[in-house]
Design brief:
Number of domains: 4
Mean pLDDT: 84
Shape: globular
CATH superfamily of the largest domain: Ribonuclease H-like superfamily/Ribonuclease H
Radius of gyration: 26 Å
Strand content: 5-15%
Number of strands: 11
Structural class: alpha+beta
Low-confidence stretches: 338-345
Distance between the termini: 40 Å
């Protein structure tokens, strides 16, 4: 039978918590702030009341996921620490002498219990509600931006990725004990042409060899490296069989750098509480997410009268959305290349503000730009045209060949018309003192993105696919929002 609450049995050691987990402990404060019963209500239909063994309470399992975000570590590392750390056990609702779960239970919980749940909106909505109940959410302004996350399984084949991880682990071992060069298991023959199964078997042997040496396991980074490889093989073996993370895509940070993974589009209040988020593949345009972020923020309980964003959000559709029935004020500087009009209308092209170039529907960036009519545009206000040229060799093998690129053509370009009166009203608005003062608050969301990545390991996906990324986004945002609420309460 699945119980609705985690309850500690009477224990002669329970008084230890009063000594070892003081009132200012972060985990005690989170427990006192939040009634986690909402987790049970959301997930109870995922369990059977009549079949199988008694399940671990979903509230406890959810708290394990929060601990993994608060103190980033592998599943095995988390469970090991939970066995000895009294603050962890208090947070989980365990007695000091109680056992902890097996680390594989976390994988099953993520895949089976949280599948098909609207976890991202649920957790953000919960934190926004807590903030409002404590009188902490009074602003009517949201700041929008996106942050990128590298895929766990990148563009390289999984066999090659395993080779790299095992190679790095061996290097770390050799720095401690060079004699291990002669103790390592024999590598598979013809590794460059080998099969994934052979590489998995070798990696398992490597982990087993290192784990037997207690002296090596004393080094935290060696043990974590072994645990990480084990986790990839044991918990995600079906994911390794994929050529890559098929939900992830290449995105561009600027003209020279790119990443393979996902984007999380975020809306945050002036109080630095995240009110909405949307996870997409890496190539998606920031500006296209604005309408959804505004709507989700309002659904979560946030009043939105103003939106602050960078140039990516100043496209024509967003300005019209803002002006429609005085929907909200949009504080986003114009980028002329996202103005209305193009000579060759093909869906999917978008402007990358950092690179100053257009990206095609397949994620390839233009290689050069040619401007015509610049002088007459300045002197007479006539239309100016910017033409973006793409690498024809990529176009020849592109899946959109025949639709976007005409086979046999010697070039591929995309043109936009810059009209002097397209955004005249918004141009006047962005010159006002109110606008200039308001956009200065945009730095707040950049600091929040930094917190997500540096404090909570959001720079890399910890699982596979868009569903896994949604779960990671949900738990990470839940944690940073709760931490912010506790700070504001103080």
């Amino acid at each position: 039978m699945l119980k609705s609450q985690t309850q500690m049995r009477l224990s002669e050691y329970a008084s230890l918590y009063d000594i070892l987990v003081p009132s200012d402990n972060e985990l005690r404060q989170i427990n006192e702030l939040i009634d986690f019963e909402f987790v049970y209500d959301e997930l109870k239909d995922k369990y059977s009341a009549t079949m199988g063994r008694s399940a671990v309470n979903p509230i406890m399992m959810f708290k394990y996921l929060l601990l993994k975000v608060l103190y980033p570590v592998s599943d095995k590392g988390l469970v090991k620490r939970a066995f000895t750390d009294m603050a962890y056990k208090y947070f989980l609702g365990l007695n000091p002498e109680d056992p902890v779960i097996d680390s594989t239970s976390l994988t099953k919980f993520r895949r089976q219990r949280l599948k098909d749940t609207n976890i991202l909106e649920l957790l953000i909505g919960k934190t926004v509600k807590i903030a409002k109940e404590n009188g902490l959410l009074n602003s009517k302004t949201i700041i929008v931006d996106s942050t990128h996350t590298n895929a766990r399984y990148n563009q390289k084949p999984p066999r090659q990725r395993l080779q790299e991880l095992s190679k790095n682990l061996r290097k770390d071992v050799y720095k401690i004990d060079e004699s291990y060069k002669y103790k390592m298991p024999k590598k598979p023959t013809n590794r460059t042409k080998g099969l994934l199964d052979s590489e998995i078997k070798y990696t398992k042997k490597l982990c087993d060899t290192l784990r037997k040496d207690e002296r090596l396991m004393f080094y935290g980074h060696i043990k974590e490296g072994v645990d990480y490889l084990d986790e990839i093989i044991d918990d995600h073996i079906h994911e390794l069989e994929l050529s890559k993370d098929e939900d992830a895509k290449v995105g561009h940070k600027n003209a020279d750098t790119h990443f393979f993974g996902y984007k999380t589009h975020i809306a945050m209040s002036d109080e630095r509480i995240i009110t909405a988020a949307r996870v997409t593949s890496g190539e998606k345009h920031d500006g296209k997410a604005l309408k959804e972020l505004v709507n989700k923020s309002r659904e979560a309980g946030m009043e939105v009268e103003a939106v602050i964003g960078d140039k990516a959000y100043s496209e024509k559709d967003n300005i019209e959305l803002a002006n429609e029935d005085d929907n909200f004020k949009l504080y986003s500087r114009l980028s002329r290349t996202v103005s209305e009009g193009n000579k060759r209308k093909v869906e999917g092209f978008y402007y990358n503000k950092d690179a100053g170039m257009y990206i095609c529907p397949e994620g390839h960036m233009a290689i050069r730009k040619i401007v015509s009519g610049k002088k007459k545009h300045k002197t007479k206000g006539e239309t100016m045209v910017e033409t973006y040229h793409f690498d024809i060799e990529k176009c020849k093998i592109c899946p959109l060949k025949g639709k976007c690129y005409k086979e046999g053509a010697n070039s591929k370009s995309y043109s936009v018309s810059i009209k002097s009166n397209t955004h005249s009203e918004h141009m006047r608005f962005q010159e006002t003192e109110v606008f200039k003062l308001k956009v200065k608050d945009r730095y707040k969301i950049e600091a929040k993105n930094s917190e997500l990545k540096n404090a909570h390991a959001y720079g890399y996906a910890d699982s596979h696919g868009i569903s896994g990324m949604n779960l990671q986004a949900a738990t990470t945002i839940f944690v940073v929002n709760i931490k912010r609420i506790l700070k504001l309460i103080k």
